[in-house]
Amino acid sequence: MTSQTYRKPVRKAVFPVAGLGTRFLPATKAIPKEMLPIIDRPLIQYAVDEAREAGIDQFIFVTGRGKTSIVEHFDTAYELETTMSERGKSLEVLEPTRVSPGNLLTVRQQVPMGLGHAIWCARAIVGDEPFAIFLPDELMIGSPGCMKQMVEAYEEVGGNLISVLEVPH
Questions:
Q1: What is the signed CA dihedral for 86, 70, 29, 20, rounded to 10 degrees?
Q2: Which of these, 36, 86, 103, 136, is most buried using a 10 Å CB contact count?
Q3: Which residues contact 59 (CB under 8 A, 6 or more apart)?
């Protein structure tokens, strides 16, 4: 018998993206904050990329009114792909936006009752599995990514982990 305890792998990520984006107004009046571009990708793409790097392959978006563009970002854009192909352009640039069928789920937070409630809304999908929470408006850049480091720590020690950052007063 090995000394290492078996732990279910972290395969699910919850993205609470139902917020109103008031901290980013007026930029977020018509565009979800998660879709704000940073260089060549929206914030939500950075979060999904970080999840994938950590070995997570099931994405749960807790959405609200006016957030359809977040899910559409990861949907197949047939007209766009057809036009690109006809013009001889590579579809490789769209690869990060592809999600395997059945691995992107949405649940609606019908009343904006805060972050804890948004995570609670995903409970039926998460079930009794370990999961990660991503706040896409908190962009963290590193190599390896923060969540990969956290998943590795979870695999080693188990339990609940939280990432914190000291901010100056």
A1: 180
A2: 136
A3: 12, 13, 15, 48, 51, 74, 99, 103, 104, 105
Output the pTM of the full model.
0.90
Cα–Cα distance for residue pair 12/58, rounded to 1 Å: 5
And the tokens for 15?
Answer: 């993205």
Report the C-alpha gap between 19 and 43 in whole angstroms.
14
Q: What is the residue-wise DSSP string for 3-35?
A: SSPP-----EEEEE-----GGGTTTTSSS-GGG
Task: Show the low-confidence residues of the chain (pLDDT under 50).
Answer: 1-2
Q: Count CB-CB contacts under 10 A for residue 67.
A: 23
Domains in the chain (CATH in brackets) are 12-157 (3.90.550.10)
Strand 58-63's sheet: what is its strand order?
104-108, 58-63, 12-16, 131-133
* Torsion of the alpha carbons at 158, 159, 160 and 164, rounded to the nearest 10: -60
Predicted confidence (pLDDT) per residue in 54-66, tens digit = 999 999 999 999 9
Q: Token match 């609670």: residue? A: 120
